[in-house]
Amino acid sequence: RAVPAARRPVVKFCHKQSGLAGDISVDNRLALLNTRFLRLCAEADERVRPLVYAVRLWAKQQGLAGNPAGGGPLLNNYALTLLVLFFLQTRSPPVLPTVARLRDLAGDEDRAVVGGWDCSFPRDAAALEPSTNAESPCTLLAEFFRAFEDFDFAARVISLREGRALPLPPAAAPEAEEGLKLGPLNLQDPFELSHNVAANVNEKTAARFGRCCRDAAKYCRSLQYRRKSSKGRAWGLTRLFQP
Predict the structure, then answer these.
(1) pLDDT at 130
(2) DSSP states of 62-130
(3) Is the pLDDT confidence value at 175 over 70?
(4) Beta strand spans in the chain (E)
(5) Distance between CA 30 and CA 194 in Å, rounded?
(6) What pLDDT, on a 0 to 100 scale, did the predictor assign at position 68?
(7) For a Cys staple, 121 with which of 59, 102, 117, 232, CB 3.0–4.6 Å?
(8) Are 1 and 13 spatial neighbours (Cβ–Cβ below 8 Å)?
């Protein structure tokens, strides 16, 4: 099924035997570099991949996740993944380095500029400094919900390049001139700084995301999250991932 009106025109397909869905696009080098960046983050710390999968499953069960190419106002997996990476950048000490730091660590063979955007970062996770953060994946998951339960998404821009939430750019700022589309949830692409990867999300979905994070954070503080139920009820991650 062709989707010519998508930001990057794609042909969507579904493999009937497995049920796996995918997209085909042509000459999209930024997407290739974004994929390599996500792989680098996953290889940098063993907690990244399970935490990303946990948040994506939770969001799907809460009805928060979807595919914006289909026109829906939900978060896609890429946006959710970037939210997790940003959260890991902001831990103390950080689990992941900022994109600006990755650029400093890039060697000559790692330099890449696509469409005027600097996409330089190490291709090998061995070039990164190991994190001294010792928090467990379950602790990080609970802290993820706490970090975003009262986050003012509309008033700030989440920047993985800087590893912090930036104030909204004034009309004369370079970000505004580059065409960053602001909305109820502002999540800047790590490299293509004019791209808000959550631009499709409306105010209702952004508010629901905050409420769901508050509910999840409250549950993660309860005994049911930490201890097995003596009455045979769902507990721990199992209950968190229920619809």
Answers:
(1) 94
(2) TT-B--GGGT-SSBPHHHHHHHHHHHHHTSSS-SS--HHHHHHH--GGG--EETTEE----SSGGGSPP
(3) no
(4) 2-3, 10-14, 21-24, 113-114, 117-118, 156-159, 164-167, 187-188
(5) 13
(6) 44
(7) 102
(8) yes
By the 8 A CB rule, do 157 and 185 touch?
no
Collapsed DSSP state (helix, strand, coil) of residue 14? strand
93 touches 212 (CB < 8 A): no
Q: What is the mean pLDDT of the chain?
A: 90
* 133, 44 Cβ separation under 8 angstroms: no
CB half-sphere exposure, 21, CA atoms < 13 A = 9
Q: Which two tokens stand for residue 119?
A: 């996409």
Average pLDDT of the residues in 204-223: 94
pLDDT confidence tier of residue 69, bands split at 50, 70 and 90:
very low
Place of tokens 């600006």: 100
Q: Which residues of 225-237 are buried (b: 16+ CB within 10 A; e: fewer)?
A: beeeeeeeeebbb
> Using CA atoms, how far apart are residues 80 and 141, in angstroms rounded to an integer?
13
